[in-house]
Amino acid sequence: MRWSIRYQFLVPLGLLLLGLVGICSWTAWDSARLARRQIAAQVQGIVHTLGDTRITLNIQILEYLRGLTGAEYVLIDSGGQRLATVSGQIGHLPPAEVIANEPSHPELGDRVLVEERAYLCRGVKMKFPNPNAGATLYVLYPESLLDEAIWQAIRPSLVLGI
Fold it and tell me: 24-32: which pairs have CB atoms within 8 A and are 24 or more residues apart?
């Protein structure tokens, strides 16, 4: 059985187009996964660095850190006093007992709402010899920054595919 000339041209072209869509979709998905993992590793680095620091954290230092990292910070000392770089009512923060500090598997943490703005929350229990020992430091990474980083990662694959 012979194919008509139309199918002889269209079938290979269709398969080529299908392969191109598949490759562009896979690279876009993988780029998004890598961008998320990179940001999670950065937040994990912040958590471990601040958890092991010997610097007394106060509102001025937390404001400087916010300017450097783009994340918001909430420090709750052992007496329950709260220092925060974010204004507004902070939603439910994870309890200190369930804060995961597993360096081999960085995560961005739970979703927290502050004035209807979404953040991903990671925390660390401050240890001795830190002057804030016993306090809990929460790093709130804005979901909007994560979404922007993921979009910037997948955009080249989508543009190339189009």
Answer: 24/157, 24/158, 24/160, 24/161, 25/161, 27/157, 28/154, 28/157, 28/158, 28/161, 29/154, 31/153, 31/154, 31/156, 31/157, 32/150, 32/153, 32/154
Q: How many whole angstroms separate alpha carbon 35 and alpha carbon 28?
A: 11
For residues 17 and 154, the answer to whether their CB atoms sit within 8 Å is no
Instruction: Return the number of other C-beta atoms located less than 10 Å from residue 18's C-beta.
Output: 10
Cβ atoms within 10 Å of 157's Cβ, excluding its own: 19
pLDDT in tens, 10-69: 999 999 999 999 999 999 999 999 999 999 999 888 888 887 788 888 899 999 999 999
CA distance 128 to 95: 20
Measured at the alpha carbon of residue 90, what is the angle toward residues 64 and 125, in degrees to the nearest 5?
A: 65
